[in-house]
Amino acid sequence: MSSRRRVWAEIDVRALCDNLTLARARLPSHTAVLGVVKADAYGHGAVPISRALAGAGISMLGVGDAHEAIELREAGIDTSILVLGASLESEIPALIRHRVVPSIHSPDRIATFAAAARNAGVRLPVHLLIDTGMSRLGVTPERAIEHLSAIANEPALVLAGVGTHLASPDQQAFSREQIARFESVLRGAIIAGVRPPVVHIANSIPLDRYPETCHDMVRLGGFLYGLRPEACGNIEAPRPVLSLRTEVAYLRDHPAGTAIGYGGSYVTHRPSRLATLPVGYHDGFPHALSNRGEVLVRGKRAPVVGLVTMDYVCVDVTEIPDVATGEMVTILGKDGDDTILAGDVARWAGTIPYEIPCRLGPRVERFTVGASPTVETQLAARQLPRDLDRWPSTVPQHLKPQHLKPQGREGSAPRNVKGNPTG
Question: Residues 38, 42, 225, 266: which is the catalytic one?
């Protein structure tokens, strides 16, 4: 009996590393890359993805919570790890024990982390999140300098970085307001004598659209996985990393007028050959693709007919000759001259591309394919310091005090670093 599962994902490590190289080629020489591997690396498999990124010299990995970080540490991955969002109080001892850098998302967490660090006998590096418009996590810009100073003056903590998150990168006016608020805080902090060593704001979407956001580090997730396959400004389109496949479990010819599946939502309008595929919504094949999705069989599109169920889906292969039981079927990826992208499935399902690989269930086995990173790829890395107790005190050139002047009296409209009103 074959050991291959009925649904499997192929993870193209070469495509992942090529996408990383694409991004690095457009970044300033001082800008490092954090690879976002939260949510099981967007469904791609956090451990194999993190190993590949570590092999390519990634500077830092970003996770969603302590448990994701611990999984990587227990797999032997020693790359610096940042928790991108909130850390619950119950998670803090494990973060410290596994050398994971937390983000401070709330003012009261400063004292909480400091107390935990003192109890553990360590100096804990932390990043401060500033809420410039996402309205989800982070301290307010109005009090951010106060909180940065509190962290910098706390012996048990090390101010390792500061970041924010753009809420709507496609809305340029609002994004530039957020950028201006963030850089206003940076200017004020530097003038107050607080210099966050690592500044980060850019993620996959603003990578080329807002070049001024490429500070010390950028956070790349969807771009690395090829989930935004269109070219972005001067950046070539990344390649999809994940292909999802299954096989034909059963073939049957039906006369016209046959009701198919639960509720008979599809009725054959001609003599039809249907293939039953052993994949369902438990595996991440969206129920919303009932009677509207497509798969690739022998490089040809086969439409989904009937309802997608927990374990099975039927597709019409009447127009595809010589299909046999055991034939490979592509749900995501390339087969012959055609390709189905996560964006295609998302459009049919009425959702976003990021959600599609994140839905993959535990029955989906993941295999890595493609070559390991080349020496050239590894040498192209921009590394953050590995000793988190001794972060450098470098500041982006355009934010150094000699390049900054107080802008207007207190309470006047914020302006960006080029002196243009933000509106």
Answer: 38
